[in-house]
Structure formats: structure tokens, C-alpha cells
Amino acid sequence: MLIATLHRIIFLSLIFVPSSVFAQESDSLFRTSRVPILFFVVLFSIVIILYTRWAKLGKTLFIRKIAGLDAVEEAVGRATEMGKPVLYIPGISEIDEIETIAGIAILGRVARITAQYETPLIVPVRYPMVLAAGQEVVEQAYSEMGKKDSYHKDIVRYVAGEQFAFTATVNGIMMRDRPAANIYMGGFFAESLLLAETGNAAGSIQIAGTARPEQLPFFIAACDYTLMGEELYAASSYLSHEPILLGGLKGQDFVKMILVICIIAGCLLITLDSGDWFKNIFRAE
Amino acid sequence: MRTTVPVVIAFISGMIMVVGFFFNPERSFLGRVEEEVLQWVTIVGGFTLLLGVVSIVRVNSKVVKQKKAGWIFNLATLISVFAMAIPSMLPVTKTSNLGSVIYSIFPESWGSLFGTGTGSIYDWLFNYLDAPMMATMFAMLAFYIASAAYRAFRARNAEATLLLVTAVLVMLWRIPMGEAFLRLFSDNIPGYINSYIMNGVNVAVQRGIIIGAALGAASMSLRIMLGIERTYMGKG
Questions:
Q1: pLDDT (tens digit, 9 = 90+) per residue, A100-150?
Q2: How far apart, in whole angstroms, are the C-alpha atoms of residue B230 and residue A245?
Q3: Residues of B in contact with A98 (CB under 8 A)
Q4: Which residue of A10, A11, A282 to mutate against B (max B Cβ within 10 Å)?
Q5: Does residue B78 fall inside a structural domain?
Q6: Worst-scoring range by mean pLDDT, A4-8, A180-184, B177-181?
Q7: Does A207 lie in the same domain as A72?
Q8: What is the mean predicted confidence (pLDDT) over B141-147?
Q9: CATH code for position A80
Q10: B155-171 pLDDT, tens per residue?
Q11: How many domains does chain A have?
């Protein structure tokens, strides 16, 4: 009921913009130069909602295998057999970054598996707000698996606010505690290789995921599995196996297909020297 | 209730940001609300800092008390936290508007040691301990890159060999001596590397990843706003 009401509100608020607001850009209330983005937002919302509804109605949706995510359970299993902990890092960005939220969502799934197997979990974080969110998610996961007694607040711990102080602490944990599995999911910067190479030297199985293309080569070189770009955002839905969440992924794929068609059309039109009209449709400030 | 309230807050906050993006902040109420909400995030973040301090003290003091392996490092962390925090926050003297000293904890000559100004304890620790240690960690990256490159560029199969050759060409082009060396074979080689490898193949792949990631981020944001995705709260 609530979701249906929210759907109606989002449509109404996006569609019923008074026509008087479309004046000259500098004077107007509405930024007319951003109309292409508005069109994209509306299209994207409609597609995601439609696919989610189809998924709710029981339509079978095919989602390709993501090896890195299938390996998560295997990695936790290995840690359980070895009697060693699992180290999970939800990136080093603040909670207002969507990558961190994706990292926290995956943490919930990983925590359920570690709770089920009673495998120790260590989650060092760089920001106190991520600490609060992480503690909430892990506590909920342990509680849902009926292992509330195994949960303690120090599973998710704040280690340092400085980027390289954080890295030094986590590297220390890797070398002293020798986790059997290291999972990096979220936003990473220059410390990505420092962490992944140390984990590699410690002999841990490593799974990484980030949406930052400049850090991906480092993770690919030093980790066993790497989730690239969109796979990070798809991970929580993929691991949940819930049709409603998978519907959102299919909707995303549909929009991507439209974009690929637009890119091919744009390449052809530019090659045929048909002017800039097509390119200008996508121009936004 | 524990699920509904956060979902409603996420929806309202998300809608403010989305709708505010399309309105002129100088002329619309929504644009100003967007800026206001961003300020709230900073304020809430400031308050949660206390949570971080509590966590760091609890985790490290437990290890020190139990004398676990490497406890000396945890002790160093605890000492560092307080050594940086206390001198920067101690009020030495408080002066009234008329210029008279209202109270004084330490002799006035010690005043420059406290706070975060030049010459303070905090400033000294930051400049002579914190900053060099950060720089050391960053500098170590060069050695890590070397060891990762050694593993990545081993010519195990055709694809790995292609990667090795491409990487060698790009690395040579990036250094003056390498560029001079490449020019011995042909003047066009450095330009070819720049145009086709870096600006062609490399950019095309990066853009593919960026477009996918942007769509993924937009999709996830929408799922969170509409309450479809609740896994970030540990639900679902």
C-alpha cells in the first residue's frame, strides 16, 4: 500500500510541473537545460517499476551468473574450515556515497552467512556514520539467523578517519589475524592496491567490487574475483534471490539496451555527417 | 514501524534531491531545501564522531587489557588518539570582551601549545608525525604496483602476452627516455600509443564501465527511494 502510494507521488511530482516555470534559463524556476535528464529519470523509473511489477506477478527473469558473488559463500566456507575470520571492508567513502550503501547492503548478506556458520567477522570502517549503519545491518543479520548471542558491537569497528591510517590498521589486521577471506565492496581510492596486495601476501582468498574504473586494474591484479561497476550495485539483489529486486536489475538492463542503441545510432549519424541534432538531444548542463 | 519510517524518510530525502536538481536554487524553495539537507548531513556526521571515538577506545583498550598479540600497537593507537585530541581541545584562557582574563588553567605562556594553531602540540604532531607517516604509506604504493605488475604481466597465454606488450609500450611512452627510444623505430609510435591505445581502446572500455556503473547507481537509488531495496537496513 505504502509503496503504491509512493509510486503515485513520484509520478505526480515528476509529471505535473507548471508550464509557467519553462521561461528563459536564467530567470526561470525550472532548469530547462536539464530536461533531457528529467526525461531519462522518468523513463528509467517507469521501466524499473514495470519490471518490478512483472517480477511480483511471477514472471521468470534470467540473471546471468556473477562468479565473484557465487564465490562469497565459498570464501566464508573456507574461513570456517580454517577457523579464521572473514575481513569485510565496505569501502572508504562516507555513507552518502551510493557505493558505500551498496557495500553495506552486501555486508548484510555476508553477515548472514558468517552468522550461519559462526565464522568470526571483522568489519573496519573509516567513518562513524558507516559504523552506525554497519552495526545495525550486522546485528539485524545475526538476529535473523537466530545467532544474536554471537553478535557483538566490535564486529564493525571504527579504525581511523585518515585514509592511510585506515590502510595501515587494516594491513596490520591482515598480517596479524590472517583472515581466510578478504571482501572489499564499495568506494576505494589509492589504498586499493595496498590493501589487496597485503591480503594477497597473507594468503587470503580475495573478492573485490568497486565502481571506480581507475581502481579496477589493481583489484583485478591482486584479487581472485572482481565485481566491475554495475555488478557491485547488482550484488545485494543477486545474493537475495528475491524476484522483486531482480526485476529492478532487468529494468536496468533494458535501459542499458536503449542506451547502446542510441550510442550505435549516434556513431552512425556522426559518421554519415548528419549534423549535431542527435548529439544535442543528450546534451545537459 | 522500524522499516516504514526509514523508507518514508529515504523517499522524502531522495525526492527533495531529485526534484531540487531540476530547479534553480536561487529562485526556488526546493533548491534551498536541497542545500539545507546537505548541511544536515554534515551536522549529523559531526555528532556521530563520538560513536567513532567510543568504538576505537573500546576495541583497543580490550586488546591492551587482555594483552593479546600486538597489544603494543593498540596502546600506541590509544595514546595517539588522546595526544592529538586533548591538547587541541583544551581551553587555556578565556578572555572577556573587555580584554580581562576570566579564567586560566595553565600559565598564559603555554597558550600557544594548545588549540590547533601554528606551534601548538597538535600542529607539531600533525606536521612531524602524522603527515610523514601518511606520505610513507602512500610512497609504499610504488613497491606494491611493482609486485602486482609482475604478477599481472606474466606472459602465460596469448591475452596475457598482449597485455604485457601493450603495458610495456604505454610505460615506455610515459617516460622521456622511453619516448626517445620508441622514436628510434618510428616517429609515429608515440602518437599511435596515445591515439589508439590510451584514447581509443582504454577510454572505450572505461566509458563502458562508467555507463554501466552510473545506471547501476541510478537503479539502486531508485530502488531505495521506492522502498523496493531495503537490504541496506539489513531487511529483505
A1: 999 999 999 999 999 999 999 999 999 999 999 999 999 999 999 999 999
A2: 10
A3: 217, 220-221
A4: A10
A5: no
A6: A4-8
A7: yes
A8: 93
A9: 3.40.50
A10: 889 988 998 998 898 88
A11: 2
Q: Is A261 in the same domain as A185?
A: no
Amino acid at A225: Y
The answer as to whether B30 is a domain residue is yes
In eight-state DSSP terms, residue B23 is B
Say if residue A163 is in the same domain as residue A142.
Answer: yes
Query: What letter represents residue A145's amino acid?
Result: M
Torsion of CA B71, A192, B214, B26, to 10 degrees: 70
Dist CA A167 CA A199 (whole Å): 12
List, in sequence order, the alpha helices (H) in chain B: 4-21, 29-66, 71-89, 121-125, 131-139, 141-152, 158-174, 176-185, 188-192, 203-225
Counted across chains A and B, CB pairs separated by less than 8 A come out at 222
- For residue A181 the three cell numbers come to 577471506
For an interface test with A, give the residue of B129, B223, B230, B235 to mutate (most A CBs within 10 A).
B223
Residues A233 and A269 in one domain: no
Q: Are residues A40 and A24 in the same domain?
A: yes
The amino acid that residue B143 corresponds to is F
Total of domains in chain B: 2
Dihedral sign of CA atoms A266, A267, A268, A269 in order: positive
Q: What is the domain extent for residue B5?
A: 1-63
Give the structural domain span for A194. 67-239
* End-to-end CA gap in chain A: 37
Interface predicted TM-score of the whole assembly (ipTM), two decimals: 0.86
Residue A133 and residue A201 in one domain? yes
